[in-house]
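W.,

You were right to be curious about this one. When I first looked at the sequence I had no strong expectations either way, so I just let the prediction run and decided to look at it fresh. Below is the sequence, 187 residues in total, followed by the output.
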Amino acid sequence: MNEFIKMELEEAKSLMEKALAHTDLEFTKIRAGKASVGMLDGIAVDYYGAPTLLAQVASINTPDARTIVVQPWEKNMIGPIEKSIMEANIGLNPQNDGIVIRLNVPPLTEERRRDLVKKVKEEAESGRIAVRNIRKNTNESIKKLKNDGASEDEIKVGEGEVQKITDSFIAKVDHLAEVKEKDVMTV
């Protein structure tokens, strides 16, 4: 096989792994009724005028399955952290005792579980679309290699390999979604 085609396949595999990792990260943000520090990922706090990730200004842990505890490293940050959590609209009400912020994760209702499963399916579809877009771009790049001396047969083989890689990554996205759906629906 043409070495340029091999490079394109490696690039596609690398990009698809990133798309899969991103999809997995998005799944961790969907709460399944259990407390998880991942639920606070992406929340930025106003730290002396600069937006800073919550994990960089406080320690976050889960002492039990229903509670998240945020302990700021500086006492004066407790107000801005509480405000940021409320503005993030993640469905949790912070309780500030002056030292730490506690977030109680309520059990999910059946209706809320179904909504979360819909969200899981939407995220899974976004992951599949990302993988398919990578496939499309890789196939276009491989077709352009015809000008660089790649034969028709090499291009066809390359496109076949891209399809095999795509199928395997879509199966991985589907597996992640299936696991997350079971997690969400488990009471």
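Here's what jumped out at me. Residues 104 and 119 are 22 Å apart (CA to CA). And, maybe more interesting for your project: The radius of gyration is 22 Å.

Coffee later to discuss?

I.
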